[in-house]
């Protein structure tokens, strides 16, 4: 979608919003799949209510992009624009055991920055790509930990109230890859409370998690991490593997040979290929076990 309305184009610079016309979502997502649309890069949180009022008044549909590491985006010209936050400098400020982090901050860099300042707890998140905002939305986690355990405060844009608000940690529920934020809430910054730990000890934990990832995941290939959530008490990857589906392909979309819940773009896969592969695997799992796998990847199709 192109923003052609002169009313919007004229106001964007005043709001500190940068317009990148016809951005390729394939280039902005870890799967390397997705068509084109206009991208608005937001430099000031305070501009968000005015920006969204303007887009809504002109009927411009939008979606919110973090680091693009948990997304499967449709092909061709997309029927909505994309908004993305730009990280301020500095994007992490520490005070005692608290880390105030901008939602656009890179998650891995946040984990290592905190670690170097003797703040641990997030070792399992090393190797999870994307932004801190995306991790909050998805309640990202691995190896027995999840980011939600450390959240004490979240600054967000509440679309329902059309304003910026701050929620306390106990006002938000964080469950397995699910949070109580409304679908159109936009996370802007978070205050984390992290346990004190000496850096060498944190580094040991980080190295163990890195090693586990290297041993089990197709890290050099384009993917969006796990495609499906694990059903209660089971592993989606194991269920897919037990059906002998590693290597199953539709075009260049392929079930990883290394981890059956990672589907990779082995060349020039389209969203259509990837969606067909996901539907096929899901149907086979349902036929054999009766379990309907729930998507972990977020699909922006139409
Ligand atoms: C190799 C690999 C390994 C991975 N391993 C793990 C893992 O171990 N554990 C795990 O949990 N995940 C894992 N993932 C998935 C992914 O990295 C996480 O879900 C990550 O937290 C997504 O963040 P993002 O910024 O990339 O979000 P995006 O992919 O950009 O967006 C995901 C969703 O969050 C929303 N969103 C993003 N930012 C915001 C914001 N600021 N406010 C509101 N909504 C927002 C988007 O609208 C979208 O709905 C992996 C992915 C890859 C490619």
Structure explained in plain terms:
By secondary structure, the chain is of the alpha+beta class. Helix content is 25%, strand content 25%. The chain contains seven helices and 18 strands. The chain has helices at residues 6-11, 48-57, 107-116, 132-138, 199-216, 236-242, 271-289; strands spanning 17-24, 36-42, 62-65, 71-73, 81-85, 92-95, 98-102, 141-142, 145-146, 151-158, 163-168, 174-175, 178-179, 186-193, 249-250, 253-255, 263-265, 298-300. A five-stranded antiparallel sheet has the order 6-7-14-10-11, with helices on one face. The longest helix is centred in the last third of the chain and has 19 residues, at 271-289. The protein starts with 5 loop residues before the first helix and ends with a strand. 38% of the residues are buried. It binds flavin-adenine dinucleotide. The site of flavin-adenine dinucleotide has 30 residues, from strand 3, helix 4, strand 8 and strand 14.
Radius of gyration: 20 Å
The low-confidence runs, each spanning 5 or more residues with pLDDT under 50, are: none
**If helices are DSSP runs of H or I spanning 4 or more residues, what is the number of helices?**
7
Quaternary form: single chain
Order of strands, widest sheet: 6-7-14-10-11
Biggest pleated-sheet summary: 5 strands, antiparallel
Which series of helices and strands comes N to C?
A: HEEHEEEEEHHEEEEEEEHHEEEHE
Average pLDDT metric: 97
Q: How many runs of DSSP E, i.e. beta strands?
A: 18
Distance between the termini: 12 Å
- Percent helix, as a range, is 25-40%
Q: What proportion of the residues form beta strands (DSSP E)?
A: 25-35%
List of distinct ligands in this structure: flavin-adenine dinucleotide
- Please state the structural category: alpha+beta
Q: What best-fitting shape do the alpha-carbon axes yield? A: globular
């Amino acid at each position: 979608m192109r923003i052609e309305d002169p009313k919007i184009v004229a106001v964007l610079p005043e709001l500190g919003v940068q317009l990148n016309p016809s951005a390729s979502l394939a280039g902005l997502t870890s799967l390397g799949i997705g068509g084109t649309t206009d991208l608005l890069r937001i430099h000031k949180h305070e501009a968000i209510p005015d920006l969204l009022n303007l887009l809504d008044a002109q009927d411009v549909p939008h979606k919110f992009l973090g680091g693009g590491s948990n997304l499967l985006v449709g092909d061709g010209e997309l029927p909505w624009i994309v908004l993305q936050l730009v990280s301020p400098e500095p994007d992490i400020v520490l005070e005692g055991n608290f880390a105030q982090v901008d939602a656009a901050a890179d998650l891995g860099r946040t984990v290592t920055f905190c670690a170097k300042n003797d703040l641990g707890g997030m070792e399992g998140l090393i190797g999870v790509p994307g932004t801190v905002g995306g991790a909050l939305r998805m309640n990202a986690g691995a190896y027995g930990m999840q980011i939600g355990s450390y959240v004490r405060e979240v600054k967000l844009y509440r679309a329902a109230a059309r304003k910026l608000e701050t929620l306390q940690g106990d006002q938000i529920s964080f469950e397995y890859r699910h949070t109580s934020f409304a679908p159109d809430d936009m996370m802007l910054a978070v205050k984390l409370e992290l346990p004190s730990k000496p850096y060498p000890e944190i580094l040991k934990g980080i190295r163990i998690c890195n090693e586990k990832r290297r041993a089990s995941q197709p890290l050099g290939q384009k993917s969006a991490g796990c495609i499906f959530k694990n059903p209660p008490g089971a592993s989606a990857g194991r269920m897919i593997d037990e059906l002998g589906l590693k290597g199953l392909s539709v075009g260049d979309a392929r079930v990883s040979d290394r981890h059956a819940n990672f589907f990779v773009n082995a060349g020039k896969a389209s969203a259509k290929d990837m969606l067909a592969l996901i539907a096929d695997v899901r149907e086979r799992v349902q036929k054999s076990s009766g379990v309907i796998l729930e998507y972990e990847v977020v699909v922006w199709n139409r």
